[in-house]
Write a structure and sequence with these properties.
Radius of gyration: 17 Å
CATH class: Alpha Beta
Shape: globular
Number of helices: 9
Largest sheet: 7 strands, parallel
Structural class: alpha/beta
Length: about 250
């Protein structure tokens, strides 16, 4: 406990699922948190339940650049700076590419990719002013092998992997470490909206460890990367997948 004492962090898509678990893990380690999410009811409840009353809720659609800049600036000003950014927000929709409507594709890119760009733009000046920090992008094992009907999602996560490597080089001289986490199948409410019980079981059976990762395990990895324990790690995408990508789909 206390590995993030005195730190401040912004987590996007923090109203539930992996984002909420990461925010709670950070708060349990002593960090002050900004919970960003476009669902006001969910994000307010999530922030209110943060360990140590260390959460602040910001209703924010990360696809809105101005809204992101305002939210991050407001939190950094009130909290006395910013040390950590977690880009977790995503918009799910699985379908064959040929059947994808333009508005759905635009929404997925606006939230999953452009939202990360706007968050980085908003956070970087504050991280530099702090003398360094940590950025964690949420990628996916979908980048490593084909997943049925996940073409747009995979493309977005692949772009985040590339962005992670590029920003690690660009921001490294400012002592800002940029990394990504690529979870394997995790039964969050969002993922369960597109994957049924049979789907979860088939994923578990294909995993060499015979178990699926939990959201809390992803959060533990995020704490490691954000803390001083990860001081020399930058530009990597860490897979937390029980070796499912090693054996293939």
């Amino acid at each position: 406990m206390g590995r993030l004492d005195g730190k401040t962090a912004v987590v996007t898509g923090a109203g539930g699922g992996i984002g909420k678990e990461i925010a709670y893990a950070f708060a349990a380690e002593g960090a002050q948190l900004a919970f960003l999410d476009n669902n006001g009811e969910l994000v307010s409840a999530a922030a209110a339940g943060a360990p140590g009353a260390r959460g602040r809720a910001y209703v924010c659609d990360v696809s809105d650049r101005v809204a992101v800049l305002e939210a991050v600036d407001s939190f950094a000003r009130d909290a006395g700076g910013l040390d950590i950014l977690v880009n977790n927000a995503v918009h799910f929709h699985y379908a064959p590419l040929v059947d994808m409507d333009e508005d759905v594709v635009d929404k997925m890119i606006a939230v999953g990719l452009k939202g990360a760009l706007w968050s980085l733009q908003a956070a970087t000046p504050h991280l530099i002013a702090r003398g360094g920090g940590s950025v964690i992008n949420l990628s996916s094992i979908a980048v490593s092998f084909s997943i049925r009907n996940a073409g747009v999602y995979t493309a977005i996560k692949g772009a985040l992997d590339a962005l992670t490597r590029q920003q690690a080089v660009e921001l490294g001289p400012h002592h800002i470490r940029v990394n990504a986490l690529a979870p394997g199948p995790v039964a969050t409410p969002g993922a369960s909206s597109v994957i049924d019980e049979q789907g979860w079981e088939s994923r578990r059976l294909r995993t060499p460890l015979g178990r699926l990762a939990s959201a809390s395990e992803i959060a533990s990895a995020a704490v490691f990367l954000a803390s001083d324990e990860g001081a020399s790690i930058a530009g990597v995408t860490l897979k937390i997948d029980g070796a499912i990508t090693v054996c293939g789909p």
